[in-house]
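ok trying again, last paste got cut off:
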Amino acid sequence: MAAASVQLGAIVIIAKLLTNTALPVPFLLAFRFVMAALVMAAVLVWRHEPLLAAHRERLALIGIGTLGYGLAALLFFLSLRYGPTSTLALIVYSYPIFVVIASLLLGQGLPARLVVAAVVVGFCGVAFIVWTPGGAALRPLGVLLALLAAIAYAGYLTGGGRLVHRTGYMTASLWTSGSAGVALVVFTLSTGTTRMPGGGQWAMLFGISLLTASAFYCLFRGLRRLGSVKVSALGTIEPLSTAALAIIVLHDHPSLGFAIGTPLIVAGAVTASFARARPHRQKVSTQPLDARTP
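nice, full thing came through this time. structure:
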């Protein structure tokens, strides 16, 4: 998960450099996901592993690829037009809070006081970043797109952790990336945002494609071992690396709100991810407990 977080942070910086060259975001992402899928397919063939996902998990992988990761990436990179990368990255990576909320809504128990406190702290961090004056301009549309990206990414992690169990790591990554890529190709063609890259853009596009393939593999392996909630806690490495790279490479100038909000978002995300839900009250039974109960 640490490896995935660093790779995804690097992808954000390279993609920002590409968008600065007027390369359309939908085309950039469509190329990224399709090429990453082709790389993973080649690796699977070389390793003699199946290209097809488990029968009952195919629709789930298509769904989390298009409506989860693909949509989250599109919203995030569109948001980069409306504010500094370091700031918007931190807003997007408040997603562990939404992962916890989704897990609770899906029946993992009522929220404990620590969970509620973590959610409040995390959103306070976002509020400090958004509304504290003195930093680079951050437009409301950018904030909205970043928050929607966080929700979509939380849906991707929650769906992947709950619905994908039998499909191998690389095969699941192939289906997720391929689904996102196909959906974005359709979106790109329908909106007429296709533009042929040139010069150094090709190298950067192939670079983020390779990083995407590797990051997907690491993400699914981490999900299988740790589950979506703990994975989202380790994912807090990503906004920190993204913000650091944005300040160094893109020369972002963080505000006072950024300095205050960063530790609050990280603290809220980590606390929410490791806090336990309060179980539902059950009637006392005289029957023996099921031997399978942990």
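cool. The chain has one domain: 2-274. The two ends are 26 Å apart (CA to CA).
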